[in-house]
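I am still getting used to backbone structure tokens and would like to learn alongside you. Would you supply a protein for us yourself, any chain you care to pick? Start from the sequence, derive the backbone structure tokens from it, and show both lines together. Go ahead whenever you are ready, and we will take it from there.
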Amino acid sequence: MIPTISARQNVKTLKELMPTVGEFISIQFQVPRKRFKLKLLGFQENGGVIVSAPKGNVNTLNLEGARLTATLMAGNRRCAFVSRLLKAHPSPYPHWHLAYPETVEYQSIRKHQRIPVNLAVSVDHQDEIKSANLGMPRIVHCLNISLNGVSVDAPSALGQIGDQYFLTLRFQVGGLDQVILLPAILRNIENIEPDVMLHGMEFDALEEDTRLLITAFFYQQYLTELGYLDDE
């Protein structure tokens, strides 16, 4: 079902949000049910929105005139608007002409927003004696990540609230392997089911290069969740 504008949503015009030309834009039709990942080529207020055409042989005869939902990023805002495919043009270059939306709903990416991930994380206590007593380093499962921390689960408590740790994460950014060491503080522990303890870890005094990598990975995962990027 195509979403409608709600009074509870943040609303601006496309001109006010000013998404960057070249930004990925997800186009979803409900009837017929089709979805495309295209690029924003430009827009003119009250004129239209121009996006790249899908690659390959796409039958547009039953798409022209159809309503669609478009989503894209504008800075740190996730934007969505309802539009219609006015015309699919094969020349002078393949592109689609969409109706200019009257309003655009948007949502800012919150600083503490968590994105689901599936990562193996090595945890080691910064206190060598406690580390030995707890049988560390230990490999645990990371469930989600934010710009400020991670949630990891383990069969038993990894320590006490306020304890300091080193987390070793391995992930890919832009197809390149990254291995980083993150100082972190244990902020909360929750027993979510038998033999599963959920730990909230807050990053502590990250170096600038490390924070940049975490930020890049976070936004990469965010865009993947929205469907703008393919899974790594």
